[in-house]
Amino acid sequence: MIGSVLNDSARGMINAQRELQKSANEISRANTSDANPEASVNVATEATVIPPVNEGQKSASQRDISEPLIEQRRQEQIFTANASVVQVANETIGSLIDVES
User: Which position among 8, 58, 95, 101 has the lowest Cβ density within 10 Å, counted as fewest Cβ atoms?
Assistant: First the structure.
């Protein structure tokens, strides 16, 4: 019984971690070009002047990151809840061992 609770909670923690990584990837790609996601960045050795950013313009590749941020928070709560279940199961196993000793 306790073993299945531990297994289910551990599986829940792993799934939450996977979803956290997925939403983190979405956030990291928010303002990148869709043309080549594996493209490397070439660092210029000469000083170049960068024009100021106009806040009013949005690029076509700009993605909304609100959903991945919400998903991050949700998965954090799921992970924490599963970790709490693991902790309670661990304490229960410890209590059972103490009773039998």
Answer: 101
